[in-house]
Amino acid sequence: MSRYSDDALVLTLVREAGAVLDGLGLAGTFTLAELHTGIERRRGRPIEIRHHPMPPEGPHGLWVMGETADYVFVDESAPPLRRTQIIGHEFGHMLFDDRGDPLPGEPALHACARSGYDEMIEQRCEWFGTVVLQRLRD
Ligand SMILES: [Zn+2]
Questions:
Q1: How far is ligand 1, taken at its centre, from the CA of residue 82, in Å?
Q2: I want to staple 17 with a disulfide (CB 3.0 to 4.6 A). Which of 6, 63, 90, 131 is the partner?
Q3: Which has the higher per-residue pLDDT, 26 or 102?
């Protein structure tokens, strides 16, 4: 892939992330709590965020789709800013509906590892997490 198309791809992903955030009815800047609530409202179910030890080789974040709630597990050893980005990344998977609805009685799992960054879905959510960081206010 040429440098030019890399840049074009990043621009597209950043714009897409912004449009999805605008679609939640969020202001230009928002708090992580506002984003959290907005996604819960969109999905009609609660999202629990848990800081948890993760193996150093990854994954750095996990999204577990339970029957009645979503759970986001974040690497507790990551620096605070990175943890926020990981939460944003997992929220991105939910908003882009990367894994559809959970099967009845069976939690589905989406694990995010660094080795997966090449995949389009992971790259898109990594940029989503970055855009979230840019738009967050205290
Ligand atoms: Zn991911």
A1: 14
A2: 131
A3: 26
Pairwise CA distance, residues 66 & 101, whole Å: 10
Entry pTM:
0.88
Q: CATH number of the domain at 3-135, please?
A: 1.10.10
What distance in angstroms lies between residue 45's CA and the mean position of ligand 1's atoms? Answer: 20
Alpha helices in the chain (DSSP H): 3-23, 32-43, 80-95, 120-135
Q: What is the pLDDT of residues 23-60, one digit of tens each?
A: 999 999 999 999 999 999 999 999 999 999 998 888 88
Residue type, 121: I
CA of 39 to the centre of ligand 1 (A): 16
